[in-house]
Amino acid sequence: MAVTFGAVFVTMLVIMDPIGNVPIFLSVTRRLTPKQRSRSALLAVVTAALVIAGFAVGGRQVLGFLDVSVPALQGAGGLLLLLVALQLLMSADDDDAESAAIDHVAVAMVPLGTPLLAGPGAIVAAIVFVQNSSTARERWLIAGALALVLLLVYLAMLFAELVNRLIGQSGIMLLSRIAGLLLAAIAVQMIADSVAGFISSGA
After folding, report:
1. 143 CB-near residues (< 8 Å, 6+ apart)
2. Distance between CA 31 and CA 104 in Å, rounded?
3. For residue 6, is it within any domain?
4. Tens-digit pLDDT string for the chain (203 aa)
5. Does residue 119 contact residue 190 with C-beta atoms inside 8 Å?
6. In a domain, 3, yes or no
7. In a domain, 54, yes or no
8. Where are the alpha helices (DSSP H) in 110-135?
9. Domain that holds residue 107
10. Is 57 left (phi over 0), alpha (psi -120 to 50) or beta?
11. Phi and psi at residue 202, in whole multiples of 5°?
């Protein structure tokens, strides 16, 4: 049982990468107030939890019903992240700050909650772990490991405000450009994995 918990915890921790997502979180939420940023962090984690749990329980059936393959899911997530990355790289400093206050809920759900946290990798891993589990206790261990990882993700985002205070808005803008570049690389890798998946499956 401990092996199951450890395997799920390590796998999901590596995929979600709480520390690595801090610059991206700060960049996407740089125009939000501290209160809105905290709410966005919580909503992003809740969104990721619901998406992953939903796919873990019935994801294979849903994908099969819609005739959607895992490579297609990877490609869609990659394209969505690429659009966000381009916005981070090309956004101007004098963008309307009021729009962030209106859209902070949407930003928390997309792209933070999904596909950044609940991306194709996390979704597929959850589906596989649940499919391979044979007892209710194993499924509870999977849920517990996932909850612990999401708690660490939330804490990393919550204390990202300390980074914001230390480096200031200029530093956040610099992080925004760097995060945009890294996010673009992640998106391209997801698209490449999608293409490789289509080729290997002969689709």
Report:
1. 53
2. 9
3. no
4. 788 899 899 889 888 888 878 888 988 888 888 889 999 999 999 999 999 999 998 877 887 888 888 788 778 878 877 887 787 787 655 444 444 444 678 889 988 998 889 988 888 889 888 888 889 999 999 999 999 999 999 999 999 878 777 877 677 777 778 877 877 887 888 789 889 988 887 75
5. yes
6. no
7. yes
8. 120-132
9. 31-201
10. alpha
11. 75, 15
Q: Which helix (H) or strand (E) holds 74?
A: helix 70-90
Q: CB within 8 A of 192, min separation 6: which ones?
A: none
> Tokens standing for 51?
């998406």
The answer to whether residue 9 sits within a structural domain is no
Q: Give me the residue label for tokens 């992003």.
A: 44
Look at the chain and report how many structural domains it folds into: 1
The first and second tokens of residue 58, run together, are: 């019935």
pTM: 0.74
